[in-house]
Amino acid sequence: MTIVLSVAFLSACSDEEANTVEENSVGNSDITQELLVEYEEYLERGHELTLFKDYNDKVASGEIAHKNDTELADIYNRAIVNSVDDDLEEYLRDQSSFTQEYMYDETKDYIENAKYEYEQEAISNLDQYIENMDENFKPTTKLGYISTSGYLSNSQEVLALDAYVNLLMNQDSPAAYQKLYTNVKPPYKGIRSREITKFLNDKGIRLFVWEDAYKKANASEFKARIGMTTDQVLESTLGKPNKINRTVTQSTVSEQWVYDNGIYLYFDNGILTSFQD
């Protein structure tokens, strides 16, 4: 008798749990449909940032809707593509608002391609702008939307060509030379590098002048981090040291890198272990 009652009780519990799951499923489905309608409206109005925030709060957190719902993920990725197409710079500024976990690989590839094409278009426009200057260095084409702020500030070729344009138009201006010295790390080897170097040589300016000016202008930007490799330091704005003192033991190669701006770096087997600045 006890066994029969137990089975009946378990059966009742099982039915109750099944009903609860079914009710939750229906509830989540309704919420999903409401969100899809709401998100479609956001897309139509161009309110992608609002959609991203709402998606993070309601979907990615899993508190209101199924976090693995494919329809919601689809519209979320559509919104990202729309945002990139509308204004890549704005997207890159606001990308902290995005949940990477729900971004498709195709969406990530789309963003990388858009960044590459954006940079190449800027480089091409600047290059043609230089090519079409007349003998008096008056431009015959417009630079258009190109700006060396935002994402393009990370492109050495964009910075170099933009600075070269400024040099061609303002050959007697110290500020024009300083723009090149500050923004472009020598030796620059990108588009028109030989032309830029020749321009400077014709003005009596050698590479070491550019290197020294760049180091001085960017020395404050160097942020030493314990664990950096020697290559990482060399590729940073600090560049090559003025002097290296080496100590070699059976198991360790220790180096002290000395810079003329008062910075000392200490490496053990190629890894930064301490520094003074």
List keywords for this structure.
277 residues; alpha+beta; four-stranded antiparallel sheet; 10 helices; disordered N terminus
Concise description?
By secondary structure, this protein is an alpha+beta fold. 57% of the residues lie in helices and 8% in strands.
Could you characterize the architecture of this molecule?
By secondary structure, the chain is α+β, with helices and mostly antiparallel strands. Helices cover 57% and strands 8% of the residues. It is built from ten helices and four strands. It has helices at 2-45, 48-60, 70-86, 88-93, 105-131, 156-169, 174-183, 193-202, 207-218, 230-235, and strands at residues 243-248, 253-258, 264-268, 271-276. The chain has a four-stranded antiparallel β-sheet, with no helix packed on it. Helix 3 packs parallel to helix 5 (105-131), helix 6 (156-169) runs antiparallel to helix 7 (174-183) and helix 7 packs across helix 9. The longest helix has 44 residues, at 2-45. The relative contact order is 0.05. Mean pLDDT is 80; it is low at 1-10 and 17-27.
List the helices and strands and how they pair.
Blueprint: H1 2-45, H2 48-60, H3 70-86, H4 88-93, H5 105-131, H6 156-169, H7 174-183, H8 193-202, H9 207-218, H10 230-235, E1 243-248, E2 253-258, E3 264-268, E4 271-276
Antiparallel strand pairs: 1-2, 2-3, 3-4
